[in-house]
Amino acid sequence: MAVPPKSGIELTDPRQIIRWSRQYAKSRTISFLVQWVIIVLMVLVVGAAGSLTNMAYQAHNMGLVILSVVLMGFMIMVLTWFSLSRWGSEVIAKITDWLYGEEGYVEYSGDRREGPAPLWLTALSGGLVVHHLVGAMLFSFAYMPLKMMQPFSACYMTPFLVMLILYQRLGLWAWIWPTLYGLHAVLLVMGFPIGFKGQWQLLNMVVPVLGYGFIAIMAGHLYSRFALYKLRQVAQAGLDRNAPMNDESLEQGQG
Amino acid sequence: MSGIDKTIHEPARLRILTLLASVDVMDFSFLLMTLGLTKGNLSSHMDRLEKVGYIAVEKTFNGKVPHTQYKLTSDGRGALETYWRELDSIRQMVMPEVDASPVNNQADASDATS
Asked: Which positions of chain A have pLDDT values less than 50?
């Protein structure tokens, strides 16, 4: 990215360097990307298994119902393992490296809480899985229509994401996800024609989870590009990149 | 200007220290990309800052690729704080009527050194 050199007090003010380096570090969207991947996988797995169970239930095929419920449980266990295992974190680290590797590494924890996640957050995350399992079961055994799955999911997911964002003190971009997800649910309940119909009904669940999270992550990523551009602009203003380290006169003065 | 720390007063090093003061850790690649200096030039500045004890260096390997990251030491943080104080006292002597902050609504420089 070309950074046009500019002069002026605003560009050489060190406070601008502090401001933009922190903005950049905070908007590298990796932690949110991790949570998004896990939540998307969870919802997709539960949704797909739920649909399979529903089809088997409608066809009165109890063998297939049991098989798909077992499959659902198994997939949840696989997902939990991925979320907690070293292998899962290595995959995420590779994605991070692929996204930001050439820019180098920067870490800022000033606004974030250190240490392991508190018990209430772990319990809320467990609750998220249970809530969606309950939803899948309700849908599977025809107690809830598929088009209500997203609003049912939003009842838990929206406040959960809000808590997550508040806890991690993420930027404004992160609020896009719960806001759009909650709004989508409200519009669906109010009967706005924003849902998929017929054989595409499962997309009513998939698209909001995948799409709104992705929009939020992209917004964070784009903001990090802007912050980096501003940071480079202020950090390079008036700096001669090829200037030799001419400290002799300074050294004499220091003695 | 006898009170001014000449190591910090150099423009590139002042930027390096300000960058390091604003975050927890930063690596060589990030500094290189942000400041747009040549590798040799940046290395010289980092060596100098390490020698005076203003920064701590951690060298590791990502597979076979060496990875060098830097942190501001408490000495470096203190020196930077003193530097800003010295500059401010000079400014007050020369222009006592001017407001201390030219960009009042921006993040305060003291954030980085606290």
From this structure: 6-11, 248-255
Mean pLDDT, chain B, whole residue set: 83
Burial class, A233, CB count within 10 angstroms (exposed 0-12 / middle 13-18 / buried 19+):
middle
Residue segments in chain B with a per-residue pLDDT below the cut of 50:
1, 102-114
Q: What are phi and psi of A6, to 5 degrees?
A: -135, 160
Contacts of A15 in chain B (CB under 8 A): 103, 106-109
pTM to 2 decimal places:
0.71
Q: How is residue A173 annotated by DSSP?
A: G
Q: Look at B106 and A15 and tell me if their CB atoms are within 8 Å.
A: yes
At B58 the pLDDT is: 93
Asked if the interface predicted TM-score (ipTM) of this complex is over 0.95, the answer is no
Question: Do A239 and B30 count as a contact with CB atoms less than 8 A apart?
Answer: no
The CA-CA-CA angle for residues B51, B72, A172, to 5°, reads: 155
Classify domain B6-91 by CATH architecture: Orthogonal Bundle (1.10)
* CB contact (8 A) between residue B24 and residue A242: no
Q: Report chain A's C-alpha Rg in angstroms.
A: 24
Q: Which domain holds residue A132?
A: 9-83+121-238
